[in-house]
Design goal:
With 524 residues, the chain is of the alpha+beta class. The protein has helices at 5-22, 38-46, 104-114, 123-126, 132-152, 155-178, 197-201, 207-216, 286-294, 312-325, 434-448, and strands spanning 64-71, 76-85, 94-99, 121-122, 195-196, 221-226, 234-241, 248-254, 257-259, 278-280, 301-302, 332-343, 346-349, 356-369, 372-373, 381-387, 390-396, 400-406, 409-416, 419-426, 460-474, 482-496, 502-511, 517-518. Pfam families: DUF6034.
Amino acid sequence: MKKSLWYTRMGVGMIIASMLLSGCQQNPDSSIVVNKDMDHLIEEAKKSDESSVDMAHIADAYETYQTTLSDESLGVTVNVDAKVDIPEVEQMSIFRVRQQKISQEFLDKIIGELAQGQTLYDAGVTLNTRTRKVVEEEISGLKAEIENIKANYGEEEVETYMPDYQQDIDALQSEYENAPAEIVWEGNESDGLLHSVAEMVEKEGGEEFYQWEYSLNPKGEVYYGANDGENGDYMSVFVQNNEERGNCLRYRRGKRGYDFTATAIVPSTVFDNIATGVWPADEDRAAECASAMYGGQVELVEFTDEPTTISENEARETADMFLKNVGLDDTYRYYEGGLYSEVRDIRVGDDTETKGYRKLYIFRYMRYADGVFVTFDAKSKHEEGWNGDDYVKKDLPVECVEIRVNDSGIVGFDYNAPLEVTETVVDKSNLKSFDEIKDTFEKMVTIANAKSDSESDSGVTVQIDRVVLGYARISEADSYDTGLLVPVWDFEGKVTNEYGQENAGSIMTINAIDSSIIDRSLGY
């Protein structure tokens, strides 16, 4: 029998997320980008000699940084006109960190703040119910495929494929006769607790969803709850503690139906990326986004029944207060955000057919350690491939908090890959001067962004508009649960490749201790 549309769409979402995770810069063939010896790095950070630079003088005479670089043989032009941002602190440190699970206590806080007394139900059971409407849509889809074969292929093909299609239709017709007319909520109330995924697989009801979840998180924990939508708002909360793909909590609320929150991938929002359905709200890019996401086969309409007319300051106040209420305000500070259009991924509800977007504020908060931000980069540490007889697929996602706000309040909350600081390894780290850092950047930026198509007449353009000193997480090549927060320089801007495709964010990250390049997708 054909898989349900629910799981087909899950697969599409995971493919898009995987593309984002794998889209990283080329790794220059140089000793300055090889795997780091963490012990050696710590020893370098402890040194205090004539090469050490105080924070007060780390970038003397560099309020801005301008230069132009080009390499015709590599097809790269680099334009730098950047503000140099240095935190106003006396020192930077090295911290040892490890992944932190989403706790039951924190889940209780989130449910208390956002569900506000509503009864929640086991979404793995209820939102996965194959109602008559769902089965009927699948039957109609198969019949449409049959008509397409009859119209476009010969009699031989029709005779070949017809028995299989008819068998699937007959099975679906039998399922339809016994399927419920609508979701059954009574008796499927959620207990509000995290459970092992293995335990949920054995539970009666929701077998398909929890078996799928088990295939992605066999040793971890899960919680998936939703309200019944009777008040006109559809909300769901998903938690996973997954040692291979990362820990996270997601919440969404909106009209029309339930946004899908239960993907095992833990991506951060990439602002102004139509391929993932996000663009500045003051730009008319819905048609462009529909083409990127759906091949132009659908029209994206604006959901005006979910307005955002409040000011950014009002929205920030709502988000900041929520962060305080759930106890995260001491660890995370506002980093970036604004008013965006975002495509909704509605899988179950009143309107699952209309593809549309809503305008809302999206705010990102990052870890703030002793007056210094951990800088954001969308690339997660990612490993996928064969290791002997085992196929390995692991992610160490980016730690961040994201809050979505419209006129109705908090409509989205993501807590991605939280970390726990276990030790201050070096209290006052030795740092290279910015002169040494920019020498590394100027030597390597053209190599790192060389065009991949040597036959193309067009080249690659790199624009750097901000250079910032902050922290980044690094780890040993085979470690996905522990690491270090170390001082780094991020060169931020935009790369436009030879095909006109743009990639914005951190273009190069350089270790502030030894001036080596850090590849975020490798984690070192």
